[in-house]
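Supplementary Methods S3. Input chains for the assembly prediction are listed below.
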Amino acid sequence: MRKMTEYKMFEGCTIGNRIPFIEASSRKVFDKLGVQTSQAPFSCCPDPTGMKSFDNDVWLAVGARNLCLAEAEGKDIISLCNGCTNTLRGVKHQLKHDSSKLDKVNLELAKIGKEFKSSVDIKHFVDVFKDEVGVDRIKDAITKPLKGLKVAVHPGCHYMRPAEWMESDDPMKPTTLKELVEASGATVVDYGEEILCCGSAITNAYEEHGFANLRIKMDAIKESGADVIAVNCPACYQQFDTRQRDLGKAFETEYAVPVLYLTEIYALAMGFSPEELGLKFHRTRVSGILEKLGL
Amino acid sequence: MEDSLEFDKLIAEFHIEPDVIKYCYQCSKCSDNCPVTAVTTDLYSDTGYNPRGNILMTLLGHKDSLLEGDDLKIWGCTVCVTCDEVCPQKIELVEVFTFLKNQSIALGKGPEFIYAQAKAVFESGKAIPPQSAIERRREQLGLPKVIAPDIDELQSLLKNMGADKKLKYEK
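Predicted structure tokens for the full assembly:
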């Protein structure tokens, strides 16, 4: 197997401290695909919809401090989360293009014995799969293709926008997640609202408006006949997995489409069992799709 | 309505390319493509969330109409960054809206979840602090322990920047 670089793993607060089963599938799939990682004492990235809105300068400094930890080891970062990737790439972008902000941040970092040198790169795991591992090698690692499974893909806003600093997929017509899901043997169904935001941030601030948005998304997904929603972001995961039940209550309709992380889809297609992946911890039951797949 | 030169100056300092906001010709592609605008306003009334209106008010320096009115005018933004992508003048709208949110926080306004998250980061270094039940679950799943951040160092950084003074501990 071709030797790849070792990355510093940035699992993020939500996956690490709330939904660790996502990390379990990620680590299993990374092992199969030869993606090497090691840990570091990272803090919160911090959240591009939370801490950045609280204080942009603080967001820059805390983000830059995390980047310093990876720089100290001369390693790039692999992130399991759209938000963390967006923050860390965004911090690097702002500091690269605004020297007064860089001076300000480095003045603060100097007080804690650090300096941001802008030498680190930050990669979303989806881009590592696509660009470094490659679809062909992923297909080679699939032993139980998910034939017949109909999947609605939701790449999530912060994976691809803003295009200027995310440099991943087309920001308005993304194709990567679709291509990667198809590599598992599953069928991707179009539902027309692929790039619509899950509404995580607006739901936290104004539930009523967040639900009005989520309803548009979920109605389109239901209409498409998808068995499952595929995601690559823990905030989107949580929005779909934990809020469908309340959405259903609010609009007196049933919403119960299960949600799988891309790494869970791959792990199932690589022969890992639902038990060792902790699929029972999903709030929206996945039993229907496991039955369909004969697992 | 009070216009503020200081507000203009702050915007200019904040925006990565400060002059670009002046190129806005109010075409409304941002609002036409905003998912929150779609569920909060008909675009003809003054209610709901309207990114086009926010850019205009910011450009004109109408600080009070932005910061003193309904919180939804600023905090309706869900940070999907669609507006940045559709803007024909390449204005980084989300950066302008971040500035407005930062100003709102400085006035002690804004939604509770923002304060709750900032407090969690200040106290534990994580937006979602570790919990013993989840630590056990990690072990069951065969995962390594999350390595805790150097909280003393992080708190020094946050205190030096005055972040602790913006936290709200009551409520």
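Chain B touches chain A through 66 residues (CB under 8 Å). Residues 112-166 of chain B form one domain.
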